[in-house]
Amino acid sequence: MQRFNVAELLQSENYLQEIIIKGWVRTFRSNRFIALNDGSTIKNIQCVINFENTPEDILKRITTGAALSIKGTLVESQGKGQTVEVQVSDIEILGDSNPDEYPIQPKKHSLEFLRENAHLRGRTNTFGAVMRVRSALTFAIHQYFVSRGFYNLHTPIITGSDAEGAGEMFRVSTLDQKNPPLNDAGEIDYSKDFFGKETNLTVSGQLEAETYAMALGKVYTFGPTFRAENSNTSRHLAEFWMIEPEVAFNDLDANMDLSEDFIKEVIKYVLENCKDDLAFLEQRLIQEDKSKPANQRSEMALLEKLHFVIDNNFKRVTYTEAFDILRNSKPNKKKKFKYIINEWGADLQSEHERFLVEKHFKCPVILFDYPANIKAFYMRLNDDGKTVRAMDVLFPGIGEIVGGSQREERFDVLKEKIDALGIDEKELWWYLDTRKFGTAVHSGFGLGFERLVQFATGMGNIRDVIPFPRAPQSAEF
Ligand code: 4AD
Ligand code: MG
């Protein structure tokens, strides 16, 4: 007898076939109908047992959450809602699940409650769907780059440099925290630490990726990224995954083209390959919307929103144009923004980004040519001497989903910038070397993977699109 998974059986027309299926009970009705799920699809398979032939002690142990192995015959279903079902000939209880203790009952649980039970939430329809879409997106991303001649690059997780210069890093150290070695000045002596210097968890693989773009031409990273920013928002994690392509000889226009095409293609992939999960998530959002006041409901259903992104060009706007739009906007004049825009050079907050995307342009926007002083040191300076070739892709409901730039490839300009910012050259000598030996125009960007998963699934909180979220005061599991 062959073992199949639920997804295979639901597509099978091989009736009267003897099969084995293993999975977890979602519901058990009328001492007869087991809805079994094994994670292969959002759908359950109905397994119909013969009450008379099933011992009572087995019947009692068929409870929500229990793991079963079922032997039976695949038949055309008599009931509504499914085409096939399994006529059970034998049941083995692989693992009991005490109904008085199992937290995931067949009813609606709040996302907050499920976050506290993150080790079990994968067994709900919502989290099963989200994690399958997440996995499909991962595959689509690798496929996108590999099929276009990019090489996947593993950049280090432990680093000695602060790529973004924001200083929001987690220290990696094996020094005795209670009694660290001190130098003559009374400061912690990191030369005695494991690596002989200060090291941290990486905030970006970009700087290392740049060196390999100057060797392999087109590379991309897809790895864990760590930021110790104390932002308790629905869009920030302390540990998240970032995709960072880096391409030799690409200028900013080519970089914008790549980011737009990339996002569209991977969304297309999930639309084609995650139909059941997306249909469920769309319904979930429609239900959720019903409990919201009218002005907070989504303007588009999930699938419509995904198609909208694929079918429309992203609007490309300079910072200066966006600044003018914002300064003259109603919420700015009526002081509805928390941060009022009046001086060129101000950093844009998420309220401004969302105004541009959701109210003004009503489509994804790529903002570019930002003021140099609000962006990282490695971005290429424009001829105006005050803006850099930076770009941010802004999405409805999400805000910034991509940040990238054309890199400063001129040794002198880069060195001047590093000196002006007081960055220790000893940290970045190898990065400067790439500008000494065969330097060339190159560009890249970083896409926050969880923000993409949020967009594709419609989940409002970033903590619900990663299996085990890491955020301030939260590292259970
Ligand atoms: O804009 P960021 O900081 O850019 C970089 O790190 C560049 N080195 C990328 C590059 O050019 N190779 O981060 C890139 C993206 C953001 O647009 C956002 O989507 C995501 O990473 N991101 C976060 N996602 C979740 N939680 C956080 N704390 C995030 N910080 C950034
Ligand atoms: Mg950014």
Count of individual helical segments:
14
Q: For the largest sheet, list the strands in their spatial order.
A: 7-11-12-17-16-15-14-13
Which small molecules are bound? Answer: 4-amino-1,4-dioxobutan-2-aminium adenosine-5'-monophosphate, magnesium ion
CATH class of the largest domain: Alpha Beta
* Cα distance spanning the termini: 38 Å
Could you state the CATH homologous superfamily of the largest domain?
Bira Bifunctional Protein, Domain 2
Total count of domains? 2
The CATH architecture name of the largest domain reads 2-Layer Sandwich
What form results from the Cα inertia axes?
globular
**Which residues sit in consecutive blocks of at least 5 with pLDDT less than 50?**
none
Rg from C-alpha positions?
A: 27 Å
- Proportion of helical residues: 25-40%
Name the average pLDDT: 95
- By DSSP, the count of extended strands is 17
Question: What's this model, at a glance?
Answer:
Helix content is 32%, strand content 23%.
Features:
32% helix, 23% strand, BirA Bifunctional Protein, domain 2, single chain, five-stranded mixed barrel, binds 4-amino-1,4-dioxobutan-2-aminium adenosine-5'-monophosphate, 477 residues, alpha+beta, binds magnesium ion, 17 strands, OB fold (Dihydrolipoamide Acetyltransferase, E2P)
